[in-house]
Write a structure and sequence with these properties.
This protein is of the alpha/beta class. The protein has one domain: Rossmann fold (3-Layer(aba) Sandwich). Helices cover 41% and strands 14% of the residues. The chain is built from 9 helices and 6 strands. The protein has helices at 17-32, 46-57, 80-83, 88-100, 107-110, 113-122, 145-155, 191-211, 216-220; strands at 38-43, 66-72, 130-137, 175-180, 222-224, 227-229. It has a 6-stranded mixed beta sheet, sandwiched between helices. α1 (17-32) crosses α2 (46-57). The chain is globular and about 55 Å long. The protein starts with 16 loop residues before the first helix and ends in an 8-residue tail after the last strand.
């Protein structure tokens, strides 16, 4: 009805980023051989996994049908909140808690900025893939009880969505749509409508590019630090 066929790539929710990235790359290669135009949508931890997969697929002729990537609240460069559990008594207690829950004890380190930032900066993302980052940008008055403590901890480091820094969600040369008032979890009564509208904007942009028309997103946005911020949101500098 909406004009596109949705699909999912199954990964381990608490799996290591590198392991899931291999799964994503393999599945994307298979999908690319069956479909002429693919738009990838990732959320949170899926962000760095897709980034690594796209880096691995760069130059692969089979992956040429991958046209766009929408990263929603992507932990592209990790979470400073995870950094707090890298050592000391907090790290020791976190390891015990994770083991008791049957969860991989290395997941916090794997999602830390110490681990993720160097990896992300070394990636070579394909320039022909339209990359859009959908970023929640809450102010202190928007934060609920569930995320307030994390937001306050990260606030001293800069604007954040209660799990990662907003600047760490951005990709140079990409487009950014910000949702002022929403945090990392994008809880809004009409989020489904917003998501469909965002998807259509990306599909419209791809169609315009294919026709050689003036790009819609480029016209609406403003360039700041290598990223284009769409007029709906606010510039993060």
């Amino acid at each position: 009805e909406l004009g596109f066929e949705p699909g999912f790539i199954e990964t381990e929710e608490l799996g290591m980023v590198e392991v899931n990235a291999d799964i994503v790359a393999r599945e994307l290669r298979a999908l690319a051989s069956q479909h002429g135009q693919i738009v990838i949508v990732s959320t949170s931890k899926g962000g760095p996994e897709v980034a690594m997969a796209l880096d691995a697929l760069r130059g692969d002729a089979q992956a040429s049908s991958i046209k766009a990537w929408i990263s929603v609240g992507g932990l592209l460069r990790g979470s400073p909140y995870a950094d707090r559990y890298m050592g000391g008594i907090k790290g020791w207690l976190a390891q015990i808690m994770l083991r008791r829950r049957g969860q991989p004890p290395g997941i916090l380190e794997n999602l830390s900025t110490v681990a993720r930032r160097p990896v992300f900066e070394q990636l070579s993302l394909p320039s022909d893939v339209l990359m859009l980052q959908y970023v929640g940008a809450p102010l202190s008055g928007h934060i609920g009880e569930e995320t307030r403590s994390r937001y306050r901890i990260l606030r001293r480091l800069g604007p954040n969505d209660a799990l990662t820094l907003l600047a760490d969600e951005l990709i140079a040369g990409g487009f950014v749509v910000t949702e002022v008032g929403l945090d990392h979890y994008f809880r809004a009564p009409d989020i489904d409508i917003r998501t469909v509208a965002l998807t259509y904007a990306v599909l419209d942009e791809l169609e315009r590019r294919a026709r050689g028309s003036q790009p819609t997103l480029s016209r609406l946005g403003e360039v700041a630090d290598g990223a284009t911020f769409v007029s709906r949101g606010v510039a993060i500098r």
